[in-house]
Amino acid sequence: DRIIHRVEKSYTDVAFIYLDVEKNPWAKEKYAPGILPTLVFYDKKGNEVTRKTGYMKERAIRELLDELRTQ
Hints:
The chain has 71 residues and is an alpha+beta fold. It contains three helices and two strands. The protein has a two-stranded antiparallel sheet with strand order 1-2. The protein is globular.
């Protein structure tokens, strides 16, 4: 998704990992059992913090990342 790639360039301290669920069916079961796209956010220790399903506007993704940075 082009939006995520634009956001990724601005957040160099955040790791972005992409899983193609068509090539990795196990990933769909584990990370996105319902709606695609699904964005899963983890803290530095690898704990899931939040999960967002469906399309998100760039501004909403940036606001969420900024909020998560302050936690």
